[in-house]
Structures are given as C-alpha cells and as structure tokens.
Write a structure and sequence with these properties.
Order of helices and strands: HHHHHHHHEHEEEHHHHHHHHH
Structural class: mainly alpha
Bound molecules: zinc ion
Distance between the termini: 62 Å
Largest sheet: 4 strands, mixed
Mean pLDDT: 93
Strand content: under 5%
Strand order of the largest sheet: 1-2-4-3
Shape: globular
Radius of gyration: 23 Å
Length: 416
Amino acid sequence: MLLLLSAVAALMVLRLVADLILAALNRAEVRRHANSPPPAVAAIMDGPTYSQSVAYTLEKSRFGVITEIFDTLVLALVLFGGVLPVLYSAVVGWGGPESIWTRVLFVLIAGVLLGIPSLPFEWWEQFRLEQKFGFNKSTPGLWISDKLKGVLLMFGIGFPLLWALFWVVGWAGSTWWIWGFALMFGFQLLMLILYPKVILPLFNKLTPLPEGDLRDRLMALGDRTGFQAKTIEVIDGSKRSGHSNAYFTGFGRFRRIVLFDTLIAQLTPEELEAVLAHEIGHYRRGHIPKMIAMSAIMMFAGFFAIAWLARSTWFNTAFGFPPGEIAPSFLLFALLSGIVTFWFAPLGNLLSRKYEYEADDFARKAMGGPGAMIAALRKLAKKNLTNLTPHRWFSGFYYSHPTLVEREAALVKAGG
Ligand SMILES: [Zn+2]
C-alpha cells in the first residue's frame, strides 16, 4: 500500500519536474533569440510584433510554472489528505447501500469541487494575462455564466451517462468493461454529431457564411477538392478571445466546417481558401476516422485498466476507499491516469504533426502552390503572437502542429 502511494507520488513529482524543465529550456531558447531572431523568423515577423510574441510566450510560461506547481500540490493534498473518502461516505449515505445515484453524485460533486481551486488562476489568465496582450474579449459576467453552464452540462450529461455505466458494472459482471467501453465510445461518436448542434450553441452563435464572393469561392474549393459542403458556418469566437482558428468536426455525412469570425476578419479570401483547403485535407486524407480509431484503442485500454484496478482490492484501500466499489476506482483513475499518459503525449503529437504536414500538402496542391497557405500561416502567427523559436524538445513534446518555420520549409520544398 505504501509502495503504491510512493509510486504515485514519485510519478507526480517526475511529471512536474519534466514539465518545469521543458518549460525552462523553452524560455531560455526564447530569451536567447529575443534580440536577434533567426533569419527565417525575421522574414516572418516585424520587430515590434516579434518582441510582443517573446513577452507573451515568457509571461504565459512563467504563469504556467505557478499553475503546474499549484495543481500538483492540490492533487497531492486531495489524494493523500483523505478528503475524498470522507466525501464518499457522506454522499453514499444519502441513499440505500446499493444505490447507483449516490455513487454517480459522488463522482460529479468531487469533479466540481476539484475544479474550484484553479478558478482564480483561470480568471487571472483570462482577465490579466490575455487582457494585457489584447486577446481577452470576454467579460466577468460571460465568464461566470460559462462556468455555471459548464457545471449544469456536467450534471445534465454526466449523470445519466455515469448512471448507465455504473449500472452496466452490476449487470454485466466481470466483462462489464467491454460493455462500458461500448457505451462510452458510442457516446463519444454521438457527441461528435451533437456537439456542434446542441452544446456549442449554448455558448456561441453559429451562423451560415452569408451569400457572396467569399462563400462562392469556398464552395467552389469544396467542389474542386471533392468535399461537397452543405454549409460553412461562422462562429462568434470574438465574443471571448481575439485568438483565431478554423476547425472541422463530425464524420461521414455529419461533417461540418466551422470558421472563427476572427479568422474571417484577419485573412484575405485567398488565405481563407487555403485554410479551408487544409481542413478539407484532413478529411480527404482520412485523418478523422484514424483519430477516432486511435481514441477508441486508448479508451479500450483505459477501461481494461479501470476494471483491473477496481478488481484489485489494494487500489481503493490505498486511498482510503472501500474495496470492490467502482465509483472511487473510476474517480481515482480519472485523477491519476494523467501521470502515466503524460509520457505518451509526444507519440500522439508526433502523429498529429504528420497529419498537419499532409493537410498542408493537400492545401498546397489545391491552391496551385504554397503561397496562399504560407501567407495565411504567417498572418495567423502574427495575430496570435505565436512563439516562433520554441526549444526543440519543448515543441517535440507538446506541439500538435509543426512550428511555422517547419511548415513553411515543407511547403516550399514541395514547391508549386
Ligand atoms: Zn490541421
């Protein structure tokens, strides 16, 4: 038991140390170039914007150090301080000895309580840090209503889902985890379809891109690249942040393309066309089913692990919970899996970066050359104050997208 707790503590410290070392290396690399950007970077960003991006990167990184240390301390306190078992016996006491709803409630209440300590940090990030660099467009009222809606959604969706899952545990016996996986994976697929239709509108306004030159242009691109889009939607991201983005959700005939209004404001029609071509590239190169399959494999492994841990009496008891109870095992797994999956993140990012190169290549061909894509990427880097000189280990570990310099090099090398 002591061995398990020591191993968990060691893994928590290891992750924190790795995080902090990578962040420190990254800051050193950014500072090293602060006064003399590499030629490839100087060609992309003008001096004042570059200085701003350096300041933004350093400030975000320093803020990240504080939040990482704080989060680790809170997690340690929660895991080893014995508060969760007290909460568990209190909440489970509200119902009968076998009642499912009290166990579901325990997980959800714990989830809400665990989110509270980091609220001041999230506030600071939005209204101090992002504000300082001109990215914050949110208001305190909107921020609070977002948080409340999040909690309501967590209960509205989480309660029936967890209830069904815990019910399956009792119903299916030792093979419950296969059924549990099927339930959760089915739910995930459903959410891919429902999220933009049901959840997103609770937070944002989605409107079809209006008729006109831009729409004709983007629709023509869709026809030409074998992607018949019914509509292209615009989301009012500018309500909260000046950062810009484009994304693609769903699969099969449920696919949809959503462009941030900030993106439309920042790019020329030709650059927007290139960005959309990149998104279509993800679709046409089959990245979406591949990503869904990957997440299914990971979820399957996760369920296998939860079932094994829940069966092993030492797991629950080490953290002060009664053995053979699924709800505590489930919560503990949710809290602890990150200290293991952290080390696999670079593999996922490596694959993601490969897909980004493929989508860029698709956009280059669709646009008849690399010019428009490069122009769009440069403009987005400037508008978002992207760090153009990350440390190699830092970007290799955390970046889901290649750096701008890497993407440009690949686009230019492939040529027209
Ligand atoms: Zn992409």
